[in-house]
From TrEMBL:
Signal peptide: none annotated. SUPFAM superfamilies: Metallo-dependent phosphatases. InterPro entries: Calcineurin-like_PHP, Metallo-depent_PP-like, UPF0046_metallophosphoest. The lineage of its organism: Bacteria, Pseudomonadati, Spirochaetota, Spirochaetia, Spirochaetales. Gene3D superfamilies: 3.60.21.10. It comes from Treponema porcinum. This is Predicted phosphoesterase. One of its GO terms (molecular function) is hydrolase activity. Residues 1-211 form the Calcineurin-like phosphoesterase domain. Coiled coil: none annotated.
Length: 249
C-alpha cells in the first residue's frame, strides 16, 4: 500500500483540484502536525482515504476538542459516539486523531511477511514537541516518556496477538540526533529513540523539521526503523518495497 505523509506546510500539489490526479493510488494519509484542520478536511474530502493526524506545537485552535486537559494520556475521556472500528476515534473532520493512542485499520489488513500472520495496519501516535516556552502541547523528555509508557500494555498485546508491536509510529517531533536541530524548539526526543529501538516499527513518520535545502536528509534509518520527515509531503510504500519484492509480486 502507498501512504501519503504530510506535515507543517500546505502543499500546492495536495491543496489543489488535481489532488486525486496527483496522488491516484494512495491508500491512507498520515498528518504529522502543524497543519490547519481545514487542510486536513480538504485531504479527507478530496482523497477520500483513511486519514490520521496528530497535533504539533502550532495550529492548536482545535486541540481542546481532543483533550480535556493540558497533559493528555490514553485515558483522556472521549464521547461515546467518537469510538468506531475498535478504538479508532474521530471528531467532525472525518480524520482519525492518533495522539497518545494505538489505532488499528482492519480495512488495510495485510499478511506480515515476518510473522506470516494476517494483521491490521497498526499505528501508534503521539502529539507535541519538546518544551521550549511552556506553550500548549510541549513536553520535557521525561513527560513524553511517561506518555509512551502508557502505550506499552497495548503494544505488548499486539505482540502476543499479531507477532509484532506496531507498524508505524506517528509523531510531530523527531528522535534525538535524527533529523532534529540543536535549538530548544527543534531538538528531538531521546525517548523516541528508546521507543523505536524497543518496539521496532517499520516506519516512524514525523514533521516539525522544515526542509529548505534539497540536500537535507528526509529519510533515515535507526535500527530496523525507517525514519521519514513528512514536511510538505512524502509518499512511502508499506510494507517496504524490498519486502514486497521478496513475495514475488
Amino acid at each position: 500500500m502507498k501512504i501519503l505523509c504530510v506535515s507543517d506546510q500546505i502543499d500546492p500539489l495536495i491543496y489543489s483540484v488535481n489532488a486525486q490526479k496527483n496522488f491516484p493510488d494512495v491508500d491512507a494519509v498520515l498528518c504529522a502536525g502543524d497543519l490547519p484542520m481545514d487542510y486536513v478536511d480538504f485531504i479527507v474530502t478530496v482523497l477520500n482515504k483513511p486519514t490520521y493526524f496528530i497535533f504539533g506545537n502550532h495550529n492548536l485552535k482545535e486541540y481542546k476538542y481532543y483533550h480535556n486537559n493540558k497533559n493528555p494520556s490514553p485515558q483522556t475521556p472521549l464521547p461515546e459516539d467518537a469510538v468506531i472500528n475498535n478504538n479508532i476515534t474521530k471528531h467532525d473532520h472525518g480524520a482519525v486523531y492518533a495522539g497518545f493512542k494505538v489505532l488499528y485499520n482492519r480495512e488495510l489488513s495485510y499478511t506480515d511477511l515476518r510473522t506470516k500472520k494476517e494483521t491490521p495496519l497498526i499505528i501508534a501516535g503521539v502529539s507535541g514537541s519538546r518544551r521550549y516556552n511552556n506553550g500548549l502541547n510541549q513536553y520535557t523528555d521525561s513527560e513524553m516518556m511517561f506518555r509512551l509508557l502508557l502505550l506499552v500494555p497495548r503494544l505488548i498485546l499486539n505482540k502476543l496477538r499479531y507477532g509484532k508491536y506496531l507498524d508505524i509510529f506517528l509523531t510531530h517531533a523527531p528522535p534525538l540526533n535524527i533529523h532534529d536541530k540543536k535549538d530548544p524548539c527543534h531538538i528531538g526526543f531521546k525517548c523516541y529513540n528508546w521507543f523505536i529501538k524497543t518496539f521496532r516499527p517499520e516506519y516512524m513518520v514525523h514533521g516539525h523539521i522544515h526542509l529548505y535545502d534539497q540536500r537535507e536528509e528526509r529519510i533515515g534509518k535507526y535500527g530496523d526503523t525507517t525514519v521519514v520527515n513528512a514536511y510538505a509531503h512524502c509518499v512511502i510504500q508499506f510494507p517496504q518495497k524490498q519486502d514486497k519484492h521478496n513475495t514475488g509480486e
